[in-house]
Amino acid sequence: MKKIEAIIRPEKLHLLRDKLDKKGFSGMTVSEVKGRGRQKGIALQWRAGDYRVEFLQKMKLEMVVEDKDAEAVIELICEYAQTGEAGDGKIFVCPVEEVVRVRTRERGCGAV
Ligand SMILES: Nc1ncnc2c1ncn2[C@@H]1O[C@H](COP(=O)(O)OP(=O)(O)OP(=O)(O)O)[C@@H](O)[C@H]1O
Ligand SMILES: [Mg+2]
């Protein structure tokens, strides 16, 4: 199993969730986060002078999926979270050792 952690633009979450649902990927955790990438936030100009927003509002989407489904999920995220502009986000993929469904105590892929 793999954990896919995607940092995306907040406005992209709704459509992406729809598309993931339609492909049968329903389980996910989302959180509002703040972050920065290579551009270190964003530089803004205002009448009172220039200033920098150090951290930008993003959404973190976490999904644990079977190994065989990881690429399909990554592909969907890239397709529906992309604008082509800086700040589209990032996807981190890690191995997952175990999953337990608390209600039934099922383990492994059957519990995802
Ligand atoms: N190396 C990193 N580690 C952890 N989180 C990161 C990292 N890089 C980016 N992020 C998270 O992803 C968000 C979006 O990053 P962003 O898309 O701006 O990456 P980037 O490397 O600057 O690429 P781009 O040049 O396309 O903007 C950041 O606000 C931050 O939350
Ligand atoms: Mg960036």
Commentary on this structure:
With 112 residues, the protein is of the alpha+beta class. The chain has a single domain (2-111), classed as Alpha-Beta Plaits, CATH 3.30.70.120. Helix content is 20%, strand content 36%. It has two helices and six strands. The protein has helices spanning 13-22, 70-81, and strands spanning 2-8, 29-35, 42-46, 49-53, 56-65, 90-95. The strands form two sheets. The chain has a four-stranded antiparallel beta sheet with strand order 2-5-1-6, covered by helices on one side. It has a two-stranded antiparallel sheet with strand order 3-4. Helix 1 packs antiparallel against helix 2. It is elongated. The model has no long low-confidence stretch (mean pLDDT 96). It binds adenosine-5'-triphosphate and magnesium ion (MG).
